[in-house]
Design a protein that fits this description.
Blueprint (H helix, E strand, L loop, with lengths): L11 H16 L4 H8 L3 H11 L16
Helix pairs in contact: 1-3, 2-3
């Protein structure tokens, strides 16, 4: 992952490259939280960048509330 300073503004080609890297990792199964931690960015930042790239975000998962048959 690129060497990013915490809180630094990321624009232009650097943002495009980061977005591409995040998209590939997310599509391979990495969670948004894991990506945020590995890049030193916030969950919201990673979520926004993924949304901008057109990725279909996965559901939250967890227990469902349907009755057992």
């Amino acid at each position: 992952m690129a060497d990013l300073k915490k809180g630094a503004r990321i624009t232009g080609a650097q943002r495009d490259k980061l977005a591409g890297d995040l998209k590939k990792k997310y599509e391979k199964g990495a969670s948004i939280r894991a990506l945020a931690e590995s890049t030193g960015r916030s969950y919201g930042f990673v979520h926004r960048v993924l949304s901008e790239t057109g990725v279909t975000l996965r559901g939250r998962g967890g227990a469902t509330r349907t009755k057992k048959k």
